[in-house]
Design goal:
This protein is of the alpha+beta class and 174 residues long. It folds into two domains: 46 residues, no CATH class; 86 residues, no CATH class. Helix content is 20%, strand content 26%. It has two helices and eleven strands. The strands form four sheets. Strands 1-3-2 form a three-stranded antiparallel beta sheet.
């Protein structure tokens, strides 16, 4: 009887080892479902998307399985961040740009050249540009154009936000 118990245990162990080997092989073949993670820096999980999906890179840290239709809906050009005094407008600017913190894109020469600056230099085209009604035009920490179109004034809603209006709204700090 002791031999049959040992034999039975050996069979059980063999079956369990075979099952774990099968599980391991299946895990290697496991497909990632739509919207699941399939890659990224230091990612250790499965990388193969189920059929008819693609592994779409969102950033160097995250990729996910998407249908071609879903991928088309989320595809947006990545904004370049331009340093202060860097070119942000004109020829050879590919895709959207974003000026670094503390600066905005001011136009030096109309339809030709613009740079990220903290203010618009007086002799640049931007000094002549005006803002339409309802446009932000100032406030603490504001960087951008400040001159409102003719007939409008830049009124303070608070110390943080000013806006081009034809009259000062009630309750504003005018």
């Amino acid at each position: 009887m002791f031999k049959s118990i040992v034999w039975f245990c050996l069979v059980c162990i063999s079956v369990l080892l075979a099952q774990s080997d099968i599980d391991e092989r299946l895990a290697k073949k496991k497909f990632v479902e739509e919207f699941g993670q399939c890659g990224g820096l230091n990612y250790k999980g499965p990388r193969k998307c189920r059929p008819n999906l693609i592994c779409f890179k969102r950033s160097r840290y995250y990729s996910q399985c998407l249908s071609s239709k879903s991928a088309a809906n989320v595809t947006q050009p990545i904004q370049q961040i331009i340093s202060i005094n860097g070119k942000c407008y004109g020829e050879n600017i590919d895709g959207p740009v974003l000026c670094s913190t503390g600066s905005a894109c001011f136009i030096q020469t109309e339809n030709v050249h613009g740079e990220c600056r903290s203010t618009c230099p007086e002799d640049w085209f931007c000094a002549q540009q005006t803002l339409p009604e309802w446009s932000p035009c100032g406030g603490h920490g504001y960087i951008g154009l400040t001159k409102c179109q003719e007939g409008l004034e830049c009124y303070a809603h608070s110390k943080w936000y000013h806006e081009c209006r034809n009259e000062c709204p009630e309750g504003w700090e005018c």
